[in-house]
DNA sequence: AAAATCAGCAACCGCAGTGAA
DNA sequence: TTTCACTGCGGTTGCTGATTT
């Protein structure tokens, strides 16, 4: 026995919305709100539509401040970076692009952006000499960059900002009272960020990300309270490299350094988008009904990560996540 | 000029999560 | 604790206009 239908399919109109239906729905919601119940809304409005259909129409088309039309380069960048980080969680991605809907972004990704990236990468490949796997090559470069980064920034009280066009996404679990934090200099887990062009997730979005990705969240590490923050920023730098370096050391002992490859496999694997995992695991992603396939190798170099972003920011936290999740020995 | 194919996008479907009873 | 109604989400479908053959 299947699930009961949400409405009487035989008596509801389907297909494209007419301008009359649009204006009825819009006028009603603007005057009365949704009343928190989409199922009964069509009746109140006088529409022969399913409640879900009304909700969708309102959210994707009728509500105020919806932005249609071309996506900017900055929006492209955010979409790509977030997709690589959290997969096809379109609603979360949409939350970072005011005026855009998840449906819009999903369509844009599936129909245009993915192709644009592939084309772009193909052109790059055509003009790039290759030495072995690009991923390995990339890893080596990232490791070098990492070493350079800390060589430069650990010894001096520095401020470092990534180039302004680079969008960084990262999830941080910052212990307030952790043994490592205590054993090293103060504020070693604090990350500073530049003051311009920052976009922050709301707490709700953060919780959603935390729960869906099964990241260690609020009160986890050794029973101590943690702060979580998720940030996209055009400028971002650690204020102190010491603990991060320690974390990296442990991380290196446990995992090889890579483009979040291991982190994805070991910590996020249960919830990270299946296609992303497939990309990571087999370098091949099959995309729904369209018989195109997109490899991780093809897409990942196109995302603008700051130099060694995962090495400089994530490893310690990944390490903590793994420990919390029981994936690492205590 | 007509048919076939493609691309973009609005809308639908069904599953999972949530909260109230 | 269980059940059920509802919401939100991601995947998929199918329509329509544009482009190609």
Descriptive tags:
mainly alpha; elongated; 7 strands; 2 domains; 330 residues; disordered C terminus; 3-stranded antiparallel β-sheet; Arc Repressor Mutant, subunit A; DNA-binding
Q: What does this molecule look like?
A:
The chain has 330 residues and is mostly helical. It has 2 domains: 12-62, Homeodomain-like (Arc Repressor Mutant, subunit A, Orthogonal Bundle), CATH 1.10.10.60; 134-324, no CATH class. The chain is built from 15 helices and 7 strands. The chain binds a DNA duplex (21 and 21 nucleotides) through residues 2-4, 6, 14-17, 37-39, 50-53, 55-57, 59-61, 88-91, 102-104, 106-108, 110-112, 273, 288-289. It comes from Solanum tuberosum.
- Give the rounded overall mean pLDDT: 51
Helix content percent band = 40-55%
Strand count, sense and barrel status of the largest sheet are: 3 strands, antiparallel
- Give the C-alpha Rg: 23 Å
* SSE topology string: HHHHHHHEHEEHEEHHHEEHHH
Shape field: elongated
N- to C-terminal distance: 47 Å
Count of individual beta strands: 7
Low-confidence parts? 129-295, 304-330
- How many structural domains? 2
* Helix-strand makeup class: mainly alpha
The proportion of strand residues reads 5-15%
Q: Please give the count of helices.
A: 15
Reading side by side through the largest sheet, how are the strands ordered?
1-4-3
């Amino acid at each position: 026995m299947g699930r009961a239908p949400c409405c009487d399919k035989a008596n509801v109109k389907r297909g494209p919305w007419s301008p009359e239906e649009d204006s009825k729905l819009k006028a009603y919601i603007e005057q009365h709100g949704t009343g928190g119940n989409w199922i009964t809304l069509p009746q109140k409005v006088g529409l022969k539509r399913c409640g879900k259909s009304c909700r969708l129409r309102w959210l994707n088309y009728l509500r105020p401040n919806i932005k249609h039309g071309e996506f900017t380069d900055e929006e492209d960048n955010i979409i790509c970076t977030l997709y690589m980080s959290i997969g096809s969680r379109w609603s979360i991605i949409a939350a970072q692009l005011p005026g855009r809907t998840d449906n819009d972004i999903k369509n844009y990704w599936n129909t245009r952006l993915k192709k644009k990236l592939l084309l772009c990468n193909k052109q790059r490949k055509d003009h790039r000499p290759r030495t072995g796997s690009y991923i390995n090559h990339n890893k080596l470069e990232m490791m070098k960059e990492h070493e350079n980064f800390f060589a430069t920034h650990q010894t001096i009280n520095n401020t470092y900002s990534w180039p302004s066009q680079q969008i960084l996404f990262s999830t941080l679990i910052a212990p307030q009272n952790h043994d490592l934090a205590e054993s090293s200099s103060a504020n070693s887990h604090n990350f500073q960020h530049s003051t311009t062009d920052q976009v922050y997730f709301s707490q709700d979005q953060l919780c959603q990300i935390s729960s869906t990705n099964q990241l260690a969240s609020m009160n986890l590490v050794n029973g101590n309270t943690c702060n979580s923050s998720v940030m996209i920023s055009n400028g971002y730098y650690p204020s102190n490299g010491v603990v991060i370096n320690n974390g990296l050391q442990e991380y290196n002992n446990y995992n090889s350094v890579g483009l979040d490859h291991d982190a994805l496999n070991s910590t996020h694997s249960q919830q990270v988008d299946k296609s992303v995992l497939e990309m990571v695991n087999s370098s091949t992603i099959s995309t729904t009904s369209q018989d195109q396939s997109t490899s991780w190798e093809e897409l990942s170099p196109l995302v603008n990560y700051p130099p060694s972003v995962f090495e400089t920011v994530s490893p310690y936290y990944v390490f903590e996540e793994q420990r919390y999740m029981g994936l690492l020995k205590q």
